[in-house]
């Protein structure tokens, strides 16, 4: 049986400017910063000791995505099943403490992105999550949020996540997210959240297209949007409401050059009654694409 994965538990991001990320994530978006002794940092949005791990490095891209399973037996079952299907699965137990989990395995998708599956995430109820801006995030059984991965061979990626990892297809959007560039984006779920993963063949060099977190209040989205605007943060897409998961969101550009989606009001899917849908628009309204800012020109002779 497939379908061991229950939620997106955490992501690791390799970022070149930790200080800029701290300002962006904490002062603008309301996430909580927790320093680590090794110079990395955790971002928290709930009881989990870590949800977003920031590792200093030049890539400015996804380092790994961590997928949660129920227990030790399920993790063993997943590892065995993937190996039977020909996937190279690494026993990553030596890194379990670092990831703040009890049990850990690691494997790669067909495009080379690193994925981890784990059980037993550390909960820090003794040091409760406190947003520096009073923001509350929707997590629980729906996990951290969602990620969108770039792909060159989308059919191979769809097979991997659906047939091998047991993700369920929610819908497709066939549209021009960026004017003049038609594409089909496909949305996959592993719990009630409409999608924890989407696959998008977009012409960008990074593996991650965006990372989404969801707030408990529409006002938190509005407040964050104004704080980002005040800080001069570029919006890759303006405020809008997505056609498929109903998420009301905006897309501030992270200091690493990929997008963050900051949303509220996402659709919860009922597996029994859901059927696969198709859309020809990314959004019911809004989400207007904004060209990225040009880097400042260096004066000749300067
Ligand atoms: Fe999204």
UniProtKB/TrEMBL annotation:
The keyword Iron applies. Keywords: Aromatic hydrocarbons catabolism, Dioxygenase, Iron, Metal-binding, Oxidoreductase. Pfam families: BphC_D1, Glyoxalase. CDD domains: BphC1-RGP6_C_like, BphC1-RGP6_N_like. Its cofactor is Fe(2+). One of its GO terms (molecular function) is dioxygenase activity. It comes from the Bacteria. Residues 7-120, 143-265 form the VOC domain. PROSITE patterns: EXTRADIOL_DIOXYGENAS, VOC. InterPro entries: Glyas_Bleomycin-R_OHBP_Dase, Glyas_Fos-R_dOase_dom, GlyoxalaseI/FosfomycinResist, VOC_core, Xdiol_ring_cleave_dOase_1/2. Belongs to the extradiol ring-cleavage dioxygenase family. This is VOC family protein.
